[in-house]
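Minutes, project check-in
Item: structure for the 244-residue chain
Input as provided by the requester:
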Amino acid sequence: MYTKRETVIGIESLDPALAKVPFPVPTTYGTVLRHYIDISAVAGRQILGPLSKYAPTPDAEAFLKNLNTNKEVYSRVVADGCLKLGEVLQLAAGNNTSVVPTPDNTTAWDIPFDLIVSAIPRLQPRYYSISSSPKSHPNAVHITCVILKYQNIPSDNVRQKWCYGVSSNFVLNLKYVVNGEAIPLLDEHDVQSASLPRYCIDGPRGAYNIESVYKVPIHVRRSTFRLPTNPKSPVIMVGPGTVS
């Protein structure tokens, strides 16, 4: 897969009862993995059974089958450990998960790509609150974004590591780049560098960086919130996720 990153592929659904392929095709392996499926999501338990058929060793197969059938073990190792699918495969194969994975230190699994696409959920949009007034900023929107960063619960098989929100940390790293600030999340000397997120700030083919002016694709949803037409009507307002 590492050498096939830029290989052009076509994907189609063989089941007419299912929806069409949830991303544009033809595409490349790298594009699907980077832009369309959530490879940072915690690995689902149900898919580990089918994937065990492609294990490189009997021990790796048994490891995945145990995670698939034993809910308590799955919860302790994968869910509490906040393991992505790639990390689960590394762990099953006995690879060192404390270093940045490369083709030289990671065991190859011969898994059909269509199974990977169906095993990992689609990368979902993240919604943030607009915190600016259109009267003060008619041509711009400001967002309120809490940076998601937390530690997993380690176990005998899983080291302790930091887990990072996908979108919020991308926005944070974009802020660092735009302001010319150091990027602490990308410190290669960090002892947990294997779990540090790395971002392609310039976008596909440099499309997000035009003469050092950075852009990010966004979508503004029209609000469904409406106040009563009668200004005398009492209103109780609650801000979910806020602290007063």
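Outcome recorded: The first strand starts at residue 8 and ends at 9.
No further action items on this chain.
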